Amino acid sequence: MPTAERIDGKAKAAEIAESIRKDVAVLKNERGITPGLAVVIVGHDPASQVYVRNKKRTAESCGFHSVLHELDADTRQDEVLDLIAELNNDPAVHGILVQLPLPKHLDEQLVTQSIVPHKDVDGFHFENIGRLTAGDIDNAFVPCTPAGCMLMIEDQLGRDLSGLNAVIVGRSNIVGKPMAALLLAANATVTICHSRTKELPQVARHADILVAAVGRPEMIRGDWVKPGAVVIDVGINRIEVVTDGEKRHRLTGDVAYEEAANVAAAITPVPGGVGPMTIAMLMANTLKSASS
Ligand SMILES: NC(=O)C1=CN([C@@H]2O[C@H](COP(=O)(O)OP(=O)(O)OC[C@H]3O[C@@H](n4cnc5c(N)ncnc54)[C@H](OP(=O)(O)O)[C@@H]3O)[C@@H](O)[C@H]2O)C=CC1
Ligand SMILES: Nc1nc(=O)c2c([nH]1)NC[C@@H]1CN(c3ccc(C(=O)N[C@@H](CCC(=O)O)C(=O)O)cc3)C=[N+]21
Asked: Tetrahydrofolate dehydrogenase/cyclohydrolase catalytic domain: from which residue to which, for each copy (predicted)?
């Protein structure tokens, strides 16, 4: 039997959504404001479509006004920018999310930076990144995935991580880097690892808090985990499994769950861990935008 606590992201996300629902009712009654979220998806990647539908469903269950713009894979850059300009100027829209990755012919940087910072509920605009890294976190939109991870870490260890070593595997703009900024702001001692890091297992074994955001199924083994660590598995990997001669897809994280759960104090599962918390944080950011 694994000894680690299984951190239930799905249950925590549902609690957050419930509290957002109440706040939305108050905002509507007292100020006549309905939070609006616009999601833009370009192309027909099936995994992206699953997330985008989850986002829309949760937004509606929170009482938000939710619009989904599904564009063809060959949509031109100027057409995407025109749509964003329209959403930037639409008073019913408080949050804009452009699902990543975008098709190759589109400039991801240009597209994400074209969203006005006060509607950038993904926290990808340079202004929000600047506020986060410079310590003006209350006035920033914090990227949803690391924000969700941070809430789960706080539940385990409290808000002050002084004296604790945090190791993040992955240095993307969407997860690894903002995760490092949040852990640093909470006084953890932070190490960021990536594909050029030497002796990764040894580095990982120093972690009191281990965050895996790599995109490689079950790369992090049980013997990489320090006994008593808190392990946050951000990875979402769709792998093929054959059962009774039939091909099926299964979701797995970047951590070998069973192995790690025998060593860690607490660990997030995949699915049901970081994923639902990401969506909850998107709702929280959209509510924050609508309220301010
Ligand atoms: N649950 C959720 O809400 C979310 C889940 N995800 C999932 O998290 C995972 C990571 O996503 P994202 O950050 O966008 O991914 P990226 O592909 O942008 O980044 C992956 C990072 O992992 C590093 N890496 C790759 N291979 C190795 C290796 N063998 N050893 C050490 N480091 C390695 C890369 O290093 P280098 O920089 O050197 O290339 C890179 O920094 C994916 O599975 C994704 O699906 C992502 C966003 C949200
Ligand atoms: N602009 C932008 N912002 C993002 O936040 C963003 C993005 N682009 N591109 C892709 C990644 C990935 N991501 C996930 C969100 C929810 C789940 C999620 O709900 N996962 C469920 C399972 C869902 C399933 O069955 O596939 C779970 O882990 O339990 C997963 C992944 C957000 N991302």
From this structure: 7-122
- 71's tokens: 């564009």
Complex ipTM? 0.98
The whole-angstrom separation of Cα 79 and Cα 177 is 30
Secondary structure class of 91 (helix, strand, coil): coil
**Domain-embedded: residue 283:** no
CB 4 within 8 A of CB 260: yes
SS3 for 135? Answer: coil
The answer, as to whether pTM is greater than 0.95, is yes
Residues 257 and 149 in one domain: yes
Helix (H) or strand (E) holding 34: none
- CA of residue 149 to ligand 1 center, whole Å: 15
| Closest atom, ligand 2, to C-alpha of 47 | 26
Asked, for residue 290, whether it belongs to a domain, the answer is no
Give the whole-angstrom CA distance, residue 210 versus residue 225: 8
Pairing state of beta strands 95-98 and 165-169? unpaired
* Residue to substitute in 214, 236, 270, 281 for testing ligand 1 pocket (most ligand atoms within 8 angstroms of CB): 214
Within-domain flag for 21: no
Omega before 101 cis (within 30°)? Answer: yes
pLDDT tens track for 94-128: 999 999 999 999 999 999 999 999 999 999 999 99
Domain housing 185: 143-275
In 3D space, the residue among 90, 145, 83 whose CA is nearest the CA of residue 114 turns out to be 83
Distance, CA 284 to ligand 1 centroid (Å)? 24
Distances (CA, A) of 186 to 98, 182, 225: 29, 6, 22
